[in-house]
Amino acid sequence: ARDVRISPSILSADFANLERELDAINNADWAHVDVMDNHFVPNLTLGLPVVESLLKVSPIPLDAHLMIDDPDRWAPAYAEAGCKSVTFHVEAAADPKKLARDIRAAGARASMAIKPNTPWEPYADLLPELDMVLVMTVEPGFGGQSFMAEQMPKVRAVRESIRTHGGDVWVQVDGGVSAKTIEQCAEAGADTFVAGSAVYGAESAAAAIDELRALAAG
Ligand code: DX5
Ligand code: ZN
């Protein structure tokens, strides 16, 4: 079986009860926190003060996905606060290499996200600076959108670059990941899976996580 990680997105959780909603996914590997600034994406969620509070109560490590402008300025603070993985968007970063180094220096795994219309190849030489690459399988901004299967060749290309470089870099997919779509992601080379509506929309979040993990592991 493949070594896989499930990271439920609390974007689909009840924002009035986030501590309880984190407890509901305590059998997951990570909790995915979507930070949106209403500039990089047309939606607004939460920022560092809320993340600091979540870190105090979360039973599992936080995986921060920053959909914000100027991540060079803001992302290292999420690592310093205690997020164990911090993802910035390459489309927003002025100096992705330096930013990845800053995130690592602040104690987190450094991760770079690419939107559906952003190609992978121009950034492949950043791999030595990265612990994870996030291939978006929807346009970032909202939960509950349809999975873009046309992103699978990009997942394959990222996985192939990692094979060539020989590093231990995770490949994450985010957007429309469900029991129907997770196997094709795993087959293409993803090993870390974000799921929002598929987990929090299920009758049992814990059971949904177990099912997704089993399907991804193959
Ligand atoms: C979208 C966010 C995702 C979102 C996924 O911009 O980055 O993490 O919560 O939600 P689902 O799994 O419902 O597509
Ligand atoms: Zn996300």
Automatic annotation (TrEMBL):
A Pfam family per the record: Ribul_P_3_epim
Binding site for a divalent metal cation: H32, D34, H65, D174
Residues annotated to bind substrate: S9, H65, G141, F142, G143, G144, D174, G175, G176, G196, S197
SUPFAM superfamilies: Ribulose-phoshate binding barrel
One GO term (biological process): pentose catabolic process
Alphabetized GO MF terms: D-ribulose-phosphate 3-epimerase activity; metal ion binding
List of catalytic residues: D34 (proton acceptor), D174 (proton donor)
UniProt key word Signal: no
Protein's name in the database: Ribulose-phosphate 3-epimerase
